[in-house]
Amino acid sequence: MYKLLLCWRYLRTRWIALASVVSVTLGVATMIVVNAVMAGFSHEMQSRIHGILSDIVFESHSLSGFQDPAWHMEEIRRAAGDDIAGMTPTVAVPAMLSFQVRGQWITRQVMFIGIDAATHAAVSDFGDFLQHPSNRQQLSFDLREGGYDTQVDAGGENGPLRPALENAGWPHRRDRVEQEKIWREQQARLGGPVRPLDQQVDAVLAATEDQTVPPPADAPDFGDDDDSVAAAGPIDPFKAARPDEGHTMDPSTEQFTGIVPGIGLASFRDRLGVDRFLMLPGDDVKVTFPTAGTPPKAVSNTFTVVDFYESKMSEYDSNFVFVPLEDLQRMRGMIEPETGIGSVNSIQIKLAEGADLDTVRDTLRKAFPPELYAVSTWRDKQGPLLSAVDMEMAVLNILLFLIVAVAGFGILAIFFMIVVEKTRDIGILKAIGAGSSGIAGIFLGYGLALGLVGGGVGMALGLAITWNINTIRQGVEWWTGQRVFDPSIYYFFNIPTIVDPFTISWIIAGAVGIAVGASVLPAFRAARLHPVEALRHE
Amino acid sequence: MSDPGQQLRLHDMPPGDAGQTAVLRGVALRKRYRSGSSTLEVLRGVDVEVAAGEFVAIIGQSGSGKTTLLHLLGLLDAPDGGEVYLAGTRIDALPSGKQDVVRNTQIGMVFQSYHLLPELDAVENVLAPLYVRYGLFEWLRRRGEARQEAVALLERFGLGHRLTHRPRQLSGGEMQRVAIARALIARPQLLLADEPTGNLDAASGAGILETLTELNRSDGLSIVMVTHDPAIAARAGRVIKLADGCVEESLTTSGRSAHASSDFHERPARAGG
After folding, report:
1. Which of A168, A217, A443, B202 is paired with A107 by a 20 to 30 Å CA distance?
2. CA–CA separation, A528 vs A436, rounded Å?
3. How many contacts, defined by CB atoms under 8 Å, are there between A and B?
4. Which CATH class is domain B21-106+190-273?
């Protein structure tokens, strides 16, 4: 009984001890905030990665791929049975994407992915990342009349606007063609030299094969603000094989094969967080990619951008370009002319609810020769990244826990002081019959109480910060004028947080444990005090 | 938590070889202190016996070992030789847990510098031995009764208006009276007082002595009081004089014959042993 009473009285009268607990409080609060934010980031990243990648990827080692995806899918279904919820074949090849911005050609290295528009959305969240609402429902590689999202999806909140996308689609394409026409007519009226750009535009219209036009040094700006005019020539080495040979294309009403590039390829985010677009849906671009067969030959083709893909994982957004599977197969020569059976180089598999990733992966690995096929889960694909994040979290936790441990030494020192200060009281208690264990109990209880107070306040503080972290961020941004959390780097607009009760209870338990642990030595010393010497202590 | 079941019931124990009339008996008590290589023999075989209801004063010069003797009798220190009997039962050889119970229930102690707990008010200080004795739930059951008793004791000592004062708000005499009330709350057989008037002015000291004498006479409480002042010792029924670690003489006085108050301001500056 006296232990509780004295603990309580010491807690109320010894503010210096509470000061030592402030470091425990701050440590706990920091750990809670850091863990919540890290878990939020990690979860956000995982869900994005998972949204992009299907559960399991079944792929060929060869760039040329394997024949007859339908047969493979049947075999997969036979091997894995009910665990398979959906499958779609894809062809992925490295490629180069070239587009023109104000007369200057820009080339980017990309991953060119042929997808089956009908089934691809079923195996991943691919559809959710598109910018046109109808494409999110069902992807179509036909250019839309308009209606692209003009606001960034910022997770329920008001994201920045993208006014450039207001006019995207057919209106943009028509404007562009119109302006090119006007420009050409002006040039003709003025009788100036025919600019290389005009040659290109002519090339578009006449579908000639002029590939070696050097870019103009000072191309005039006749596009919308940032929207470039990409007047790509319809240079088509496979033209001869196409059914519309000799057809003169009218770019204001017709489009090339549609593609969906990642938004990171088409735009960049400036310091203010506003996206500046280099191309828009409706513009034409050129893609150079290897044909199937050995050695691969590089072929180029012209495509029309029909939508953008925005997963908010910059690695994917600035790397992926999606194209209809059949078109890519045909352009790469992957379709057997006689049977019409195509080849693909991977099959994306979505598992049924509750199926175990690793089990299905291992089943498929057994069913197919590993020399020919690689089977991996989405986690395997992003293994290094995910484990780096886990590692980062573990190291941070260790470091932060060391802070709390340091606080433990503060408690130890202050407790020793309190024991010295209370020596006479300890003698008195022993004289009136308190046992050594009881005396130790006072100080252990005191340590426990301080740990609980420190941990509890730390938890409250940590949770308060975590739940209001975006308000705090805005406040700090307003106060300093600096961007604390730059969406151009992270591609999300709010700091994601996940509060895990299990983590929090571990943190609190650790903090309380450290406080009690730090009080063991002083408590032991107090218990060992000789009553006569303690009473004599001045 | 002190478990009530663990309490030592001295009368339940088989009586020792000592006479039943002696409340407290010290036999051939020895104590030495080592400091470095030299050994200081403080007590060299002291025999003391306190009969029930007796008021004994132990007197001696500084360093004569009188406080050490009191500590041995009160189980605050362990003798290097000899035995201590309380009501015929040897108590110095008990395990420390049982010694704690004896201190808590059978012996009351009063010190020269009061030794009150500064975090507790007067009533709580008086109740401290009961806090120590009872666990939380036992305490909650008994607290009303215990508190009444503590208040009654304080009122008896004229501290009815000081119940919720902290020790630092009390005068020396008041603090010592609180300390006596604390020593009595457990209804001990024996009160050990170490220079109870040593830090007090003449008037307060006389008041404390009066209180002790009164407790001895009307309640029949056995008291052992250590002092260096013959005038104060003269208030006791019997005086044991210690010199150089041995009992020099033991003589019975008439008790209340001497008037101590006149000598109070003449005591030596450094008191205690």
Report:
1. A168
2. 7
3. 81
4. alpha beta
